[in-house]
Amino acid sequence: MKSYEVNFDGLVGPTHNYGGLSYGNVASQSNSQQSSNPKEAALQGLAKMKALMEMGFQQGVLAPQERPDVAALRRLGFSGTDAQVIERAAKEAMPLLVASCSASSMWVANAATVSPSADTADGRVHFTAANLNCKYHRSIEHPTTSRVLGAMFADQQHFAHHAALPAVAQFGDEGAANHTRFCREYGEAGVEFFVFGRSAFDTRYPAPQKYPARQTLEASQAVARLHGLRDEGVVYAQQNPAVIDQGVFHNDVIAVGNGEALFYHEDAFLDTEQMLAELQGKLARVGGKFQSICVPRSAVTVDDAVRSYLFNSQLLSRPDGSMLLIVPQECQANERVWNYLQGLTSSGGLIREVKVFDLKQSMQNGGGPACLRLRVALNETELAAVNPGVIMTAPLYGSLTAWVEKHYRDRLSENDLADPKLLLECRTALDELTQILKLGSVYPFQIN
Ligand code: SUG
């Protein structure tokens, strides 16, 4: 049976703004308080989805969330009508209003961890929504994420959904941004690679000194158990704490894998040799031939990687077995990175082509091409069981761009977040979106 990697991209929400909310994410911090352009952000994301669809890849779309999250503000003690809740939060605790307005659910690599049916004990595709416990503005995403994923992958014969892990730092889980799957064919059993930043309970693992390590070993292990993965099909590795302290807040900022290949920076991991040997051995057991492409620090520094997001690229398989790398335009702007990429594609190795995308609006908050997509490997039968409303087609692209043009502002600054009209605009837009994507009622304003 045929199988595919389907990329579900997060649609940028109407409140996209630069709140400076993510300590440890260099771009989020350095662009704090700049005004944003939500319309441009959403159109840039849609242009990438359309381009991949036109290249022949399976492409889907994941809906944004209701923002401002008035219910979250109510849980923090703000009361009255919705407009009064927003007004009071703006007056008394602006940082909380900013957090409740973040469009951060657009980075759907953090929405969930997904295990394809070929890896799981019950033969279903398993999803665990990420608790995103490290940052308040992201910790409020998972209930709606679960409802949206449930509406997209509703067929219980093929899809199993797990609630987010307990919302405490020991189980900090950032979803697929720290999870990679290696396999020969997408529909065959593979090796799931979980990268963690620290251990919550075992003091033998070192931790970063400056910035938080968002993903714990214990969270990754819990996800592997929930999904029913076999020990022979799982590899755990620790991220190098020194790179977390240089702004590598997720593994997908310093490594990307696809098929049998891992593309990574020399400084990405601790105990790299042992990890590579384990990946090679476990992939060989399921018939795969592991390949690694290491980018040396002499060619590209960790700082170059963080600024250019070279590794936050999409590594995609082409029909001839070679691979294509989708990179943000910031890679072209960095001479060392661009030279490296020119050498890489002309060397006759696995990665033959690089395609550049303008994702500046997302990049300014630390979100590159790979952050914007959640990969779901599906066989033909499972793909047919996905809600067809969320699969990208030319007409859907047309409807979504028209919807963005109609509802989105082209400028948003912090003061605008206190405007009660913004809430109304967002709800009107999202109500229409759930009809376009055939999701049913998934937002708090639709179900309460
Ligand atoms: O969690 N930025 C996101 C970026 C997530 C990128 N995802 C991956 N690497 N997979 C984060 O730090 C910034 C929001 C703000 O500051 O307004 C933010 O949440």
Please write out the topology.
Elements: E1 3-10, H1 26-30, H2 38-54, E2 59-62, H3 70-75, H4 82-92, H5 94-101, E3 112-115, E4 125-129, H6 136-139, H7 142-152, E5 159-162, E6 179-182, E7 191-196, H8 217-226, E8 234-238, H9 241-244, E9 255-258, E10 261-265, H10 272-285, E11 291-295, H11 302-308, E12 314-317, E13 323-328, H12 330-333, H13 335-346, E14 351-357, H14 360-363, E15 373-379, H15 380-385, H16 394-407, H17 420-436, H18 444-447
This protein binds N~2~-(3-carboxypropanoyl)-L-arginine.
The site of N~2~-(3-carboxypropanoyl)-L-arginine has 22 residues, from loops.
Care to describe what's here?
One of its GO terms (molecular function) is N-succinylarginine dihydrolase activity. Belongs to the succinylarginine dihydrolase family. The structure is a single chain. The chain is of the alpha/beta class. It has a single domain, classed as 5-stranded Propeller (L-arginine/glycine Amidinotransferase, Chain A), CATH 3.75.10.20. Helix content is 35%, strand content 17%. The protein has a 3-stranded mixed β-sheet, sandwiched between helices. Strand 12 and strand 13 form a beta hairpin. Helix 16 runs antiparallel to helix 17. The N and C termini lie far apart (42 Å). The structure holds N~2~-(3-carboxypropanoyl)-L-arginine. The site of N~2~-(3-carboxypropanoyl)-L-arginine has 22 residues, from loops.
